[in-house]
Amino acid sequence: MSLSRPVLALGAGPRVVADARRWVVGTVAEMGRDDLTETAELGVSELVTNALLHGSAPIQVAVRGTREHPRIEVRDASPERPVMPHSRGTSAGDHRPGNVDLDTVLDDLDLEGLEAGAFALATVGRGLDMVARCSEAWGADIEEDGKVVWFSPATQFAEDEGVAGVVSDLDLPRAETIDDPVTVHLLGAPGYLVERLQRHVRELRREVRLLGFSYGNAYPAAATLADLFPLLVPLTESRYIDAVSLSAAGRGLDLSVVVSRGSALAARQAADLLDKADDFCRQEELLTLHRDDQLCEFQDWYLDQFAQQAAGHPAAPWQVPVTDPHASAC
């Protein structure tokens, strides 16, 4: 069985919580981790509920990490930070952490067919407090286009308040603070490959950082890789793109990216880092898709352009004809 897990895209309404629960339960069962069923089921129910009530569409659920240490992620398009349990006070009555029974909560969260109002009332007062009690580690990553709230399900439901969550922001410098800026021109770049590269770098960066944070002793290479990933951030993040226009030859996009000369000259090191990260994914059997041949070829051209142009060479356009597999046929 392939360990690579697809992403579950969710719609709107109370039924999607039940859909997410079934999907996550099925995924952990396929992985042979039935010991995580209850905490994974409850945790994802709470995170999807929060995304529906307080986040923005689209909402996605993913399972990352490894079979030994899986991580469940819920992504939505709102970059607003979640309200962490320690900052909102203790809930009243039966919603206090010490008065919650796991089986009762799971029964409450059988939300198929409920009206939206009843759905909201059934979940108010638990949220991230419950996630903390279901987790070995959990937190949220805030990005420029939304956020990912994640947790590593524990084998047992905590009787106390559980573990503290960690919120991290995308740590990018503002463009006007770039020292010795250089403008790199990426000519004829296929838009969908640019998006795939950006998404791949973000997911890998989160993967190695969270594995190092949560299970550093089990994955010492993850912490080392995480320390190197800032090399890639200014080269791939969309906020560094200064201008986008259609290529005159109709091949794709012409991009102008402003970075420091030092970052551009380090692009070959960044390419080596992606190769090492791919090796790490394969060796540790991560539940994250590694790059295919097309993305590897595009990444090599993309990053080489930074190093070449920073050294004074002219821009060389992307020459490989590609077709977006997601484009509609005429």
UniProtKB/TrEMBL annotation:
<keyword id="KW-0067">ATP-binding</keyword>
<feature type="region of interest" description="Disordered">
    <location>
        <begin position="65"/>
        <end position="99"/>
    </location>
</feature>
<dbReference type="InterPro" id="IPR050267">
    <property type="entry name" value="Anti-sigma-factor_SerPK"/>
</dbReference>
<dbReference type="GO" id="GO:0005524">
    <property type="term" value="F:ATP binding"/>
</dbReference>
<protein>
    <submittedName>
        <fullName>ATP-binding protein</fullName>
    </submittedName>
</protein>
<dbReference type="InterPro" id="IPR036890">
    <property type="entry name" value="HATPase_C_sf"/>
</dbReference>
<feature type="compositionally biased region" description="Basic and acidic residues">
    <location>
        <begin position="65"/>
        <end position="79"/>
    </location>
</feature>
<keyword id="KW-0547">Nucleotide-binding</keyword>
